[in-house]
Design brief:
The complex is a heterodimer of chains A (about 230) and B (about 220). Chain A has about 230 residues and is α+β, with helices and mostly antiparallel strands. Helices cover about 40% and strands about 20% of the residues of chain A. Chain A has 6 helices and 8 strands. A 6-stranded antiparallel β-sheet of chain A has the order 2-1-3-4-5-6. In chain A, strands 7-8 form a two-stranded parallel ribbon. The longest helix of chain A has about 45 residues. In chain B, α5 crosses α6. A two-stranded antiparallel ribbon of chain B has the order 1-2. The chains are: A alpha+beta (about 230), B mainly alpha (about 220). At the A-B interface, α1 of A face α5 of B.
């Protein structure tokens, strides 16, 4: 028979050894993991301006196309900081007035492209993505979405290029200049609808979450757009 | 002492070979014992994910069996389940971290299922039934054998589902375009979880039809 003392000592020693092993592993591996996360983010940003990249050339392409990254405040005034390091999940918890708004600016064949990061909630967890606007700040050049836990085949379809490519050419302002956003419409959008794309069948809650994310996210940048248009 | 024994008994004696081969065939954890079904549903849409999962389970199970077998004489029986769980979960966390560092896209695909290796009943079952009472080498073989039995079924199901569901294997197109031109279509049902169960069912059927000993007459 083992004494209680032995059992306690055994359990304590085990826990300490395991803690040491796991924390060492986590520390040693974290540079690799952070690099992967960084590359994935870069690939997503590039995908939103319709540029395909591989893991090895992503950083190179990012340097080539993305010419600037800014952080804006609620009034559209640029503030100091590294836009790439902004944690969208954390910003999303703040009041809209207090958020730091990252913005990437790309140049493709002399056209200036504005890339806006978005963050919202789907059915099971967060969804996020990037929408790129052409120089007129109205026409969408491309979109890229991702999710953490949407249902495969249903909500998860938002990250499929088939869905994302629908956004190309859609407009976030109507002809009168009023903000309309772009929404996924249940049952399908009309072909000539400049503000609608087909929602995902069986993914209504995810689609609605996506609509809110796009409209709330883009709205935050309106002061900046106005300033830019006034120039 | 163990040296002595292994001199008397070759490393790959008939008994030891059986430890390795039985679980792949006659005593397969999935098709015969029907364990570990939950993960089969979730991750066999693509061969690559199945392969990574299979390798991860082989690593976790082989090592867990070895560690528990080394410790078997020191583990107080009253906390043995906790000790087993701690060993398994630490190994799984290690595997998860390594996947995140080196095969990030696959690890995103497997998402929670790497963590759920902890709850894979096969692993704890082998620790409790085998590693606690056996020497290190046979325990290692038993662990690897059972994990390989699990992995083999995972791969077969993965191949069937990816081939018929997407027309690809490991992401490469294998069904020629000419087939599609003739009106062949990928079977969308294959992508959905129920087809994993149906595929496993068919494998079990074939397995039992070939090995009459396994047929349950009651």
């Amino acid at each position: 028979m083992y004494s209680n003392r032995y059992i306690f000592l055994y359990a304590s020693a085990m826990v300490i050894i395991v803690a040491i092993v796991l924390s060492t592993a986590a520390t040693l591996l974290s540079p690799f993991q952070e690099r992967n996360i960084r590359i994935e983010k870069i690939q997503n940003i590039l995908a939103s301006i319709n540029i395909e990249s591989t893991k090895s050339n992503a950083e190179e392409l990012f340097g080539e196309y993305i010419i600037d990254a800014k952080i804006l405040d609620y009034q559209g005034v640029e503030i100091e900081g590294d836009a790439f390091e902004i944690d969208m999940a954390e910003e999303n918890r703040k009041k809209p007035e207090d958020r730091n708004l990252p913005l990437y600016i790309a140049k493709i064949e002399n056209d200036t492209i504005y890339i806006i990061p978005l963050y919202g909630s789907g059915l099971w967890g967060p969804i996020w993505g990037y929408i790129s606007l052409e120089a007129d700040l109205t026409t969408i050049l491309g979109a890229n979405f991702d999710h953490s836990a949407e249902t495969p085949g249903l909500g998860a379809e938002i990250s499929e290029s088939q869905f994302e490519s629908q956004f190309k050419g859609k407009k976030i302002y109507d002809d009168a200049g009023a903000f309309r956003s772009v929404s996924a419409i249940r049952g399908g959008a009309r072909d000539d609808d400049p503000h609608g794309v087909d929602a995902i069948t069986g993914g209504t809650i995810t689609s609605n979450g996506l609509n809110d994310m796009i409209s709330n996210g883009l709205k935050l940048y309106e002061p900046f757009f106005k300033k830019l248009k006034a120039i | 002492m163990s040296n002595n024994n292994s001199q008397q008994e070759p490393l790959f004696s008939l008994k030891n070979k059986r430890l390795l081969s039985n679980p792949i065939g006659k005593d397969n954890p999935i098709t015969v014992q029907v364990l570990g079904i939950c993960s089969i549903l979730a991750i066999t849409v693509q061969v690559k994910a199945s392969l990574v999962m299979a390798v991860s389970v082989v690593a976790v199970m082989g090592l867990a069996n070895v560690i528990i077998s080394i410790l078997r004489k020191t583990i107080p029986p009253r906390i043995r389940i906790i000790v087993q769980l701690v060993v398994i979960s630490s190994l799984v966390i290690l595997v998860d971290q390594i996947l995140k560092a080196f095969v990030y896209d696959v690890s995103r695909q497997l998402s929670v299922f790497v963590g759920l290796i902890i709850t894979n009943c096969i692993i704890m079952g082998r620790l409790e039934a085998f590693a606690l009472n056996n020497k290190v080498w046979p325990s290692f073989l038993d662990g690897v054998g059972n994990a390989a039995g699990y992995g083999a079924i995972l791969l077969v199901v993965g191949i069937v589902r990816e081939l018929f569901g997407a027309g690809t294997l490991m992401g490469h197109q294998v069904i020629p375009q000419a087939f599609y031109d003739l009106g062949y279509e990928n079977n969308g049902l294959m992508i959905l979880p129920p087809m994993a169960l149906i595929t496993v069912g068919i494998i079990i059927w074939i397995h039992r039809a070939r090995d009459r000993e396994l047929i349950d007459v009651s």
